[in-house]
Amino acid sequence: MIRPVDTNLEYLETERLTLRRFTADDADLLIELDSDPAVMRFLSGGEATAPETVRERHLPSILAGYARWDGDLGLFAAYEKDGGAFAGWFCLRPEPDGPRDEAELGYRLRQASWGRGYATEGSRALLHKGFTELGMRMVWAETMTVNRGSRNVMEKLGMTLTGTLPTPADMARVEGSEHGGVRYEITRSAWERR
Ligand SMILES: CC(C)(COP(=O)(O)OP(=O)(O)OC[C@H]1O[C@@H](n2cnc3c(N)ncnc32)[C@H](O)[C@@H]1OP(=O)(O)O)[C@@H](O)C(=O)NCCC(=O)NCCS
């Protein structure tokens, strides 16, 4: 899936990735990403997200987020610069009713894009933008205790393990859910000292 660059949608550029805002036409990208059992392993236990859930809930909520946070925060589509393939998404997103200077970092990449440092590269750039341009005070990230890949990204970013989390009821059947989840944080001052 190669897409021409629309400059109005551009959000962030890294050495190897371009991040842009999603549009109402992007349901298929999200549906395809969430249809890979390996991608969904630690999210749903491998089950695909229903296309109508993407169309009726996820995508509208992403677009509403741009309105809420002036296009500065939310979920962003990532493309590989070399070849233009859709790589997945990253997010830097406050709680809907939470303080705007505290945001969750997240990432979900297509399997074809794993193992090349993209999650770390995109997240590093998001932390930089968040702390230098967007007035972030703190960024957090959460994952399942057993999601080693995701935790490695958080640790490479210099985030600190700050707590453990109970497994949400709807994730009880996911492999490793008995080990619960973990939360990592990084404050602006810790990021500046890193
Ligand atoms: C987790 C995920 C984002 C990692 O993306 P990635 O681009 O492959 O990660 P990176 O290449 O930046 O890897 C960062 C570090 O973690 C390691 N790593 C990545 N995936 C790993 C895995 N499955 N197991 C162990 N280590 C892993 C890398 O080797 C690298 O460490 P290194 O530099 O010391 O070699 C990707 O596998 C993914 O999207 N998975 C499905 C969705 C998901 O689980 N998202 C997180 C939900 S909280």
UniProtKB/TrEMBL annotation:
SUPFAM superfamilies: Acyl-CoA N-acyltransferases (Nat) (SSF55729). This is GNAT family N-acetyltransferase. InterPro entries: Acyl_CoA_acyltransferase, GNAT_dom, N-acetyltransferase. GO terms for molecular function: acyltransferase activity, transferring groups other than amino-acyl groups. It comes from Actinacidiphila bryophytorum. Residues 17-189 form the N-acetyltransferase domain.
